[in-house]
């Protein structure tokens, strides 16, 4: 149940304008609350769920501390409450995913859901860019943003998913599936380039350099 709800969130959030509006983020908060309840019930009845430490624990704790400090000193109470809620929900979904989706087939299924939805959105954006589909909500019509209002937000989504497609290409043994991952990579890369987001281009370059170094180390 947890992996199904998590997969639904991963599909819904980017389609709903990146979930930056309250009408889109509200259902996600409800879904994360439901996941949290299921997780607590599983712990309550001793279903072999343990809390796993990650390399991001300290950065997340520091970020949460700064968020709370900023919240205390804020002059914009409503906006600050909404942002703190968003950070808390993101932290919950991260740790629940790490602790509950830990089997190889579950991890691969979630990765495939991410890649499939991102590729579909990228292709949708490319068709919009070519004029085949209306793009009335785009903030800048020459910069691809697909289901997002802002092209920089869309580019951030693409740069997060693009390394996953490369990882799946390298790890997949089946030629047919590998071909699908190559297609996904090409669609994501094309959409990222057409987004015209220089910040995303810089970020993905750094990510690719880091990924190349890690792959070389693993081979050695």
Written overview of the protein:
By secondary structure, the protein is mainly alpha-helical. It contains eight helices and no strands.
Helix/strand structural class: mainly alpha
The largest sheet, given as strand count, sense and whether it forms a barrel, is: none
Approximately how much helix is present in the residues? over 70%
Regarding quaternary structure, how should these chains be classified?
single chain
Radius of gyration using CA atoms only = 19 Å
Q: Poorly predicted ranges (pLDDT <50, ≥5 residues)? A: none
| N-C termini distance | 39 Å
Count every helix, treating DSSP H or I runs of 4 or more residues as helices.
Answer: 8
What is the H/E order? HHHHHHHH
Shape: globular
- Report the count of strand segments: 0
Approximate strand percentage = under 5%
How confident is the prediction overall: mean pLDDT? 85
Which features characterize this protein?
0% strand, mainly alpha, 220 residues, 8 helices
List the SSEs and their pairings.
Elements: H1 2-15, H2 22-44, H3 57-72, H4 77-100, H5 104-129, H6 151-171, H7 175-194, H8 198-219
Short summary:
This protein has 220 residues and is mainly alpha-helical. It is built from 8 helices and no strands.
């Amino acid at each position: 149940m947890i992996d199904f709800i998590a997969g639904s969130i991963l599909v819904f959030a980017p389609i709903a304008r990146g979930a930056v509006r309250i009408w889109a983020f509200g259902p996600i908060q409800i879904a994360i609350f439901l996941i949290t309840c299921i997780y607590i019930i599983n712990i309550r009845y001793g279903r072999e769920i343990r809390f796993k430490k990650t390399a991001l624990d300290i950065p997340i704790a520091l970020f949460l501390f700064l968020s709370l400090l900023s919240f205390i000193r804020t002059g914009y109470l409503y906006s600050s409450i909404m942002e703190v809620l968003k950070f808390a929900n993101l932290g919950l979904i991260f740790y629940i995913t790490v602790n509950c989706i830990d089997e190889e087939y579950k991890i691969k299924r979630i990765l495939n859901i991410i890649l499939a939805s991102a590729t579909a959105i990228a292709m949708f954006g490319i068709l919009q860019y070519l004029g085949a589909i209306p793009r009335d909500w785009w903030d800048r019509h020459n910069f691809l943003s697909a289901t997002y209002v802002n092209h920089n937000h869309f580019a951030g989504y693409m740069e997060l998913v693009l390394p996953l497609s490369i990882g799946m290409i390298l790890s997949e043994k089946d030629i047919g599936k590998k071909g699908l991952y190559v297609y996904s990579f090409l669609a994501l890369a094309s959409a990222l380039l057409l987004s015209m987001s220089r910040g995303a281009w810089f970020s993905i370059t750094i990510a690719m350099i880091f990924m190349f170094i890690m792959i070389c180390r693993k081979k050695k």
